Amino acid sequence: MRTSIATVSLSGTLTEKLAAAARAGFDGVEIFENDLTGSPLSPEEIRERAADLGLTIDLYQPMRDIEAVPADEFARNLRRAEHKFRLMRRLGADTVLVCSSVSPYAVDDDTLAAGQLRRLADLAQESGIRVAYEALAWGRHVSTYEHAWRIVEAADHPALGVCLDSFHILARGSDLSGIEDIPGGKIFFLQLADAPQMALDVLQWSRHHRCFPGQGDLDVAALVRAAVRAGYDGPLSLEVFNDVFRQADAGRTAIDARRSLTLLQESAGVTAPPAPVVPTGFAFVEIATADTARIAPLLTALGFSRTARHSGKPVDLWEQGEARILLNTDTDTDTDTGSHRSGPSLTAVGLESPDPAGASARAESLLAPVLPRRRAPGDAPLDAVAAPDGTEFFFCVTERPGDTGHPGWTGDFVPAPHTPAPIGITRVDHVALSQPWHHFDEATLFHRGVLGLRPQASVDLADPYGLLRSRAVSNEDGTVRIALGVGASPGEDPARGGRPQHVALVTDDLVPTVRRALASGARMLPVPANYYDDLAAAHEFAPGELETYRELGILHDRDEKGEFRHCYTVTTGRVFFELVERVGGYDGYGARNAPVRLAAQHALAE
Amino acid sequence: MRTSIATVSLSGTLTEKLAAAARAGFDGVEIFENDLTGSPLSPEEIRERAADLGLTIDLYQPMRDIEAVPADEFARNLRRAEHKFRLMRRLGADTVLVCSSVSPYAVDDDTLAAGQLRRLADLAQESGIRVAYEALAWGRHVSTYEHAWRIVEAADHPALGVCLDSFHILARGSDLSGIEDIPGGKIFFLQLADAPQMALDVLQWSRHHRCFPGQGDLDVAALVRAAVRAGYDGPLSLEVFNDVFRQADAGRTAIDARRSLTLLQESAGVTAPPAPVVPTGFAFVEIATADTARIAPLLTALGFSRTARHSGKPVDLWEQGEARILLNTDTDTDTDTGSHRSGPSLTAVGLESPDPAGASARAESLLAPVLPRRRAPGDAPLDAVAAPDGTEFFFCVTERPGDTGHPGWTGDFVPAPHTPAPIGITRVDHVALSQPWHHFDEATLFHRGVLGLRPQASVDLADPYGLLRSRAVSNEDGTVRIALGVGASPGEDPARGGRPQHVALVTDDLVPTVRRALASGARMLPVPANYYDDLAAAHEFAPGELETYRELGILHDRDEKGEFRHCYTVTTGRVFFELVERVGGYDGYGARNAPVRLAAQHALAE
After folding, report:
1. CA–CA min distance B39, chain A (Å)
2. Do A530 and B13 lie within an 8 Å CB cutoff?
């Protein structure tokens, strides 16, 4: 099916919006009236610009408060419509959106509404224009798609059909089965938007909080399926009013939008992009750093050993159990971002993939930037894509004795002599990645759609200087977990150390692991004594247990399935490490302790 | 009455919050448990810190899910309470807040609730602690203050009373008359917060959108009056959960909070600060600029003449009718803000005041920074305060022939020879001031409370790069109007010219005025042709009228009371001018045209 996007979904001038939509691969656009009114381009110039970009103009919108009004008011409305139809001819748009009246003058009279819409359709037809009538969820008398269809059916005019808008229909919790009773040819247009479930006035909800399908809680795919079953074959068009998209870079938003639409088409069964390839574990975590003076001793204290060096790049492999960390001192590749100025930073994640090439094909079909394969001749191919936050995700296979097939990424590394001194770390539990402000939903969609991970609910975490939002994505068995976090404002104060990222490492027995780390010189994050007083009030502990936690800076959480013990190293550059022990079926990340951890990190940074 | 603020209302560490509360003049604080838990200071050290700052610790909060639970659960709760009472003794806090249960284990049994709260109060009393029981609006079984009071009354324990929270009570639209039936001595605490009226889930509304009294839509003063009539004489304490305050500078937020509380006390009739002095007009608008090369010709083209120069400062007075503009080239005073680097900027507004000293006393009592009087010996005294956006407001008298009393500000100016060449401008209609991000409510409260202006509803304006919010404040007859605007994100992109401010000037006949301005070389903002097509569709105009508007770049609006014609000069530095003609009783600002104006300004800047 053709894809389209309403210009109101993107920021900037009309010219910028058209360019962004075209670059992201949309087939057409809906022109939102205000975008045209504010543009210095004439309708003819806009038509030409769109054509040059390969975009059709699928809809002109909106026309308001047309129908079910007294005769004199309707005469004025027809006059207004004549002006707009003239404009649409100049623009080359052949479908106009008419929203159900919200006017205080509108009367509750379906026969009047049908008659006036028929008259409007007559006028439209003379100009070769079709009228798509849509029920606004807050329409004065017509607020459901069934009602709009009854009026259109009664009007019985070839140039009059309905427009179905997923927000207006799903926000009201409407039954979708009635859609299949509408002849497909009478569904003139399909506007798609998602939204988070909110108990908010529906107009405010609609105007400010819509999002792209898959970023909210509405079942937009069910609506698409119903429309397709009804025989609709027009464009799938995104119409999203969102305060954030209004100010975000249009090019970036358009890519996010197009990715959402592909995933929606996949869910609705109308397109089949390459299937998702769910990762089965962490192959490695890569930390970039100009020098290793601070990070290498920390890794050593945490029980890692430098086991190998890349054959062609200044990259060291550090291992302990199944936990692998790459230290990359090839900072030339990243100097333009300035991300290394403040020391080590987490730049890449290797995901163990059952099918690296398939994962890469999936990512490419979803507009993830595929990275140039940084390989020397003879290196194993490394399929990699960039996430919205800039983190590079590699799809890899870690070769094990006897493996055949896809060459393992470790084949590029030359073993180095070393004496293992593990402290009990077995693997990576999760990585926590800071997302750019206002791109949290984009990140969730990316990790779900491109990487095949399942998002959990988002939580608010109280930092001393603002609320953070955090959402974990993971594979089914929890062997790949990523915690996506976003701050409260665009500028993380560099004076306070920026927003560091972290790598959480699994141990089966935290207390001896921490003791060994401390004995080897690791600096752990000090936890305020008040925290342990609070813990003592909350739960009973075995004798000595709480004292041990207090001594070692261990935090504690429990849920109905199990317990969680964790502690943190101090931050070096933009990275710190967490040591975690999961007991029983505990599936969380210690969110209740995050405010204490954040306060302690701020205290240390000052 | 004593004033207090909950630490959760301010950002930062506990130490920073205490310091900010003290600096703003609060008498005490409520300690929010998370702030203590995350603090490296021991309870004794916190007690000492507060005492050193002259702050009492009026409340420790919150204790949750205590009452109406099964016996074994209650035993655990008492154990928890023992821990917390021990902590409160160390902290020197003698009142604890207990919120009504939200626990799924809580049962709907008032007798059980009363019995368990009595037992809790027994335990508290042993430690010299009082328990203030509060109904959360989303409490599982107890969600109204009347219900909470019935349980407290039944428990009948001297160490048990109620806490009244204005949010929980007013958000539910509760009848306040029941408050006076509670003996004042049993109202242990009063927590105050306002909130904008929202059809939002009450818990989300409460946790994220509370604001300081006077910044929302709840009648907090009515609640204070009821509590005072009941005999309550404890502190008035602000407890505001707000996403913005969590990240804003704590010192600034505390001042805003303290100002809100003074205005609330005034509304409730428990304090009488100096009465408001409502300004009666604009005395002048001051524009600072390093050089006048760009602005002076523009003023000349707009019909202003340089009529006088200040006797002691490089400040010129330009006049036309009752419109007065000061050009101040004394940029030394402002170089630290860097505001002049990009050319002329609007820095001060002179308000015609019936009582400048009174206005200044009012401002000072409301913690407005009173500015050093920038005067030479012999100058008229200039009472001035700084608004939250940095604009300086002067309270002045413009002397007219035969006036006596307060010396006029023009007495400091030496007339300059000039030939008037007016183009029909009679006075200043309004000034539009850009507010810092996230400080819109603070600005509204300031202009209402300190300057005595009346706020109108806020409106959203669609800029191509994000939604702006705008709210006008004015005096009764509209001779003083200020449009406060705020952008969508903290950094206005300097590449797009920053967010300019503007001065709107009144003419009784816009068309000839604009023609004369153009003839004198004024550059007016070009308006897209599409705007006039849209206007033609919307309304019928007299023959030639629309063509004239199109020719001159005049925008048009109408409401039920009249019409509005307006147009804009191009921006110079950070300032532009608007020419406005109000016809009939039109009382707005042409908000419907703002998106077109903003788009046109962006187009010109690129």
Report:
1. 6
2. no
**Least confident interval from A250-259, A324-333, A538-547, B420-429:** A324-333
Question: Which residue among B246, B529, B595 sits closest to A488, beta carbon to beta carbon?
Answer: B246
Q: Categorize the per-residue pLDDT at B336 as very low, low, confident or very high, splitting at 50, 70 and 90.
A: very low
Mean pLDDT of chain A: 92
The region of weakest confidence among A490-494, A501-505, B454-458 is A490-494
pLDDT at B369 over 70: yes
Alpha helices in B104-210 (DSSP H): 110-126, 145-155, 166-171, 202-208
* Percentage of chain B modeled with pLDDT above 70: 94
CATH number at residue A237: 3.20.20.150
Q: What is the DSSP letter of B524?
A: B
Q: Single out the residue in B268, B289, B311 at which a domain terminates.
A: B268
* Tally of structural domains, chain A: 3
Nearest Cβ partner of A528 from B39, B534, B537? B39
What size, in residues, is chain A?
A: 606
The rounded distance, in Å, linking the Cα atoms of B403 and B412 is: 16
Does residue A292 carry a pLDDT above 60? yes
For B449, the domain range is 425-605
CB A180 within 8 A of CB A224: no
Residue of B39, B84, B530 lying closest to A36 (CB–CB):
B530
Is the same domain home to A101 and A196? yes
Find which of A84-98, B170-184, B492-506 is predicted with most confidence, using mean pLDDT.
A84-98
Mutate to test the interface with A, among B217, B249, B253, B530 (most CBs of A within 10 A): B530
DSSP-derived secondary structure for B204-252: HHHHHB-B-TTSSSS-HHHHHHHHHHHT--S-EEE---BTTTTTS-HHH
Going by the DSSP 8-state scheme, the letter that residue B175 receives in this structure is: -
Residue A492 assigned to a binding site: no
A208 a known binding residue?
no
Same domain, A593 and A471: yes
**A459 and A589 housed in the same domain:** yes
Answer yes or no: do B112 and B66 share one domain: yes
- Together in a domain, B458 and B559: yes
Residues 6+ apart with CB under 8 A from A72: none
- Going by pLDDT thresholds of 50, 70 and 90, the confidence category of residue A381 is low
At residue A52, φ and ψ (nearest 5 deg) are: -60, -35
Which tokens in the block code for residue B181? Answer: 């039936």
**Residue to substitute from B33, B36, B39, B209, interface A, most A β-carbons within 10 A:** B39
Determine whether the annotation assigns residue A239 to a binding site: yes
Query: Binning pLDDT at 50, 70 and 90, where does residue A228 land?
Result: very high
**Disruptive mutation site among B8, B465, B558, B602 for chain A (greatest number of A CBs within 10 Å):** B465
Contacting residues of B for A465, CB less than 8 Å apart: 11-12, 246-247
Do A381 and A437 lie in one domain? The reply is no
pLDDT at residue A217 greater than cutoff 70: yes
Q: Is residue A276 part of a domain?
A: no
A chain contacts of residue B20, beta-carbon cutoff 8 Å: none
Q: Are residues B223 and B361 in the same domain?
A: no
Which of A34, A201, A540 lies at the smallest CB-CB distance from B595? A34
Phi-psi region of A298 (alpha: psi -120 to 50; beta: other; left: phi over 0): alpha
Same domain, residue pair A534 and A556: yes
Residue A274 lies in a domain: no
Rounded to an integer, the average pLDDT of A143-151 is 97
How remote is the C-alpha of B32 from its chain's centroid?
25
pLDDT one-digit tens code per residue, B406-419: 678 888 899 999 99
In a domain, A275, yes or no: no
A578 occurs within a structural domain: yes
B482: domain CATH number? 3.10.180.10
Domain boundary among B242, B268, B294: B268
Q: Please give, rounded to a whole number of angstroms, the shortest distance from the CA of B245 to a CA of chain A.
A: 8
